[in-house]
Amino acid sequence: MLDSSSPPPARGGHLPMALLSLALLLTSAPASRLPHTDHDPHPPMTNLRMEPGTRRLTWDLRGDVSNISCTKLGFHTKAKKGRYCQFFVLDKCATSNYTVKGTLVNGTPFSSWIQYPKQAGNPGAAAQGLRCQAHDRDFLTCRWEVGREAPSDVQYFFYLQEVSSHKKWECPRYTADALGTHTQCQFDDLSEFPDQQYHFVVNGTSGGYTIPCNELITSFSDIEILSAPALTANCNESLSVLTWEMSSRYHRNFDYELEIQQLSKMSFLLLNPGTFTVRIRASTYRTVGQWSVPQHFVCDREKGARLHVWLTASLIALAALLTVVPAVLLCRRYLRKLFPPIPHMKDPMGDNFPTEKMTLWEASSSPTQDCPVAEVQVVRAP
Chain centroid to CA 284: how far? Predict the structure, then answer.
């Protein structure tokens, strides 16, 4: 082993052949592709590498390895056909460890890992505190601070890149600090950006230094700031009707919180509101929006009181009418059952009742008829 504390060999000195071979091996292999194994001089898996275009972690398999899987920062996935692992999002700026694990034929576990991406330059010179907000429906604003160890000639540039398609948008408008260094980027039209995952990236340049990048990986719905709904009110003598309209590009379902202050009391039912102040905000399951500017409304209570009395009297009269009419109709129904009408006399000539049996009397030749008469005698008792 080489002692790191020992001085380097003098100019023109000779290194042992074994040490020279080891030094050539270490300097010839890229650090981002050099696999790290568990002390196996003949690993069954070699040439571990990341393919940015396909987002695949691939390797060359020289032995029989089963149950191969990959891990990155807690994300775990199984290998495809034993030849690669598919990742859907790759960091562009932050270096991460990608680990591949498997089992050899004899049951021995096997693992190898690489770091990707391999960043160069001083991390203290990169843009710091990157944060982005989608706001007012159509605007995106991203801000950052100059790195504490950035050189005096540093300049930063921002771009968006869609994760799935790799489509890229450069910043259209920058805001600079007093030294002319870009510290903010703004997009004024988000109509062409669907709600998908994007890389929000700030690169740095300098004449004599390499500046690492800084990034966010998120979707627009996660960074959208909900604007306050547009609130309007129609106020008459008796009540106030509040309506509002919500505008958002990346959300559709909202809950609303309405705050009404009336004489220092909270209220949600205003039949005769008088003077009151109201404000409103919207929220979703993941974020709470901004409060609207408080709006002040004045309604005439005296006119409202007279109108309220008139409406109350009208409603009472209408209720009484609706109660009496059914009662009268119901009484007529029962009166007919208690006192049925007297049937009219039938006219055999005028009334046509085909089911009636009628007998026709014919006039006799003699004007009178002789009826048998029995004589009755009254006998007194002795």
Answer: 6
Express each pLDDT in 240-271 by its tens digit. Answer: 788 888 888 888 888 888 887 765 554 445 56
| Residue 133 φ then ψ, to 5° | -135, 130
Contact status, residue 270 vs residue 258, Cβ threshold 8 Å = no
Buried b (16+ CB within 10 A) or exposed e, 326-338: eeeeeeeeeeeee
Query: 28's torsion region: left (phi>0), alpha (psi -120 to 50) or beta?
Result: alpha
Q: In this structure, how many other beta carbons lie within 10 angstroms of the beta carbon of residue 229?
A: 22
**How far is it, in rounded angstroms, from Cα 79 to Cα 77?**
7
- Report the amino acid identity of residue 17: M
pLDDT at residue 168 above 60? yes
Selection from 226, 231, 241 nearest residue 282 by Cα: 226
Residue keyed to tokens 């948008």: 169
197-205 and 155-162 strand pairing: antiparallel
User: pTM of the prediction?
Assistant: 0.60
Contact 236, 299 (CB under 8 A): yes
Instruction: Tell me the pLDDT tens digit for each residue of 273-286.
Output: 667 788 888 888 77
pLDDT-derived band at 84 (thresholds 50, 70, 90) equals: very high
Identify the band that residue 128 occupies on the pLDDT scale cut at 50, 70 and 90: very high
Question: CB count, 10 Å around CB of 227?
Answer: 17
Distance CA 132, CA 319 (A): 61
Rounded Cα distance, 319 and 235, in Å: 28
Token match 């049925």: residue? 340
Query: What are 84's two structure tokens?
Result: 């690669």
**Helices and strands counted in the chain (H then E):** 3, 22
Please give the Cα distance from 119 to 94 (Å, whole number): 8
Q: How far is CA 154 from the centre of its chain?
A: 39
Q: For the stretch 69-95, what's the b/e string if a residue is b when 16 or more beta carbons lie within 10 angstroms of its beta carbon?
A: ebbbeeeeeebeeeebbebeebbbbee
CA distance 152 to 155: 9
Q: Can you tell me the distance from the alpha carbon of 201 to that of 170, in angstroms, rounded to the nearest whole number?
A: 10
